[in-house]
Write a structure and sequence with these properties.
Elements: E1 2-3, E2 10-11, H1 29-49, H2 54-58, H3 62-70, H4 72-75, H5 77-88
Amino acid sequence: MKFCPNCGAQVDDNAVVCVKCGVALPNMSQKTNAESNRWLITLLLCFFLGGLGVHRFYVGKTGTGIAQLLTCGGCGIWALIDFIMILMGNFTDNDGNPIKGNL
């Protein structure tokens, strides 16, 4: 779901011009590249430091990050589940936005 930066109307994800006000919509390719980088960083943090919950701190989930830190990633099980969720694109940040990337 995408919104027009000029009038705030909801527009189609593939739209290049807002139907309501006629303003050209910004190119979303830079955002996709940034999201892909964020996904890769989250994946690597989970792989190497998952037992410490560092990937959860990175995406803003401080409370569960502390819980993983204190339990060593739920004895590794919680960290493994997070790693699989990140790989599949089902992991979200603190605001509920999905963290997706391309393998």
